[in-house]
Amino acid sequence: MKNHEVIETLNNLAIVSRDGEQGFRTAAEQAQDPQLKTVFQTAAQRCAAGARELESEISELGGQPSGSTSILGAFYRFWANLRSLIAARSDKAILEEMEQGEDAAKSAYESAIAKPLPSRVQAIIDRQYRGVKANHDRVRDLRNRAA
Predict the structure, then answer these.
(1) CA distance readout (Å), 136 to 43, 70, 88
(2) For residues 23 and 79, is the Cβ–Cβ distance under 8 A?
(3) Please, which residues have CB within 8 angstroms of residue 14's CB and are 6 or more apart in sequence?
(4) What is the reported pTM?
(5) I need a labelling partner for 122 at 20 to 30 A (CA). Which of 23, 34, 61, 88 fits?
(6) What pLDDT does 146 receive?
(7) CATH number for the domain including 122?
(8) Among 41, 42, 147, 43, which Cα is nearest to 90's?
(9) Domain range spanning residue 56?
């Protein structure tokens, strides 16, 4: 795989991580349950740390981190739905939307994992994928309990 393709893959994941960070921060602000707020704040911090790690690796490879968030595809729908739910301030509804956002994040990481990336980059992505999956599963479990 060419270096610019590796950088592009990492930038895409960094954008996904920044989207997750913003989504979890927004959810934390709007959640009613204090425990749920804490879960969302912790997840936002993990997403931010993941984005920083990816951006650092991009720089190490000679690339320029995009430093932005996406407005396309599943994430655009996720944000639009989350914003509309904020008015309702329903923890269950927020959890449902967060799970959809985490589904999209899992998919992005799974696509990256399938690529022939350098072993160092693959190790970073594999480790971060486990964190994305843990976020997803935690949100899913909380949603199931709220049902």
Answers:
(1) 10, 19, 22
(2) yes
(3) 51, 54, 55, 58, 65, 66, 67
(4) 0.86
(5) 23
(6) 85
(7) 1.20.1260.10
(8) 147
(9) 3-146
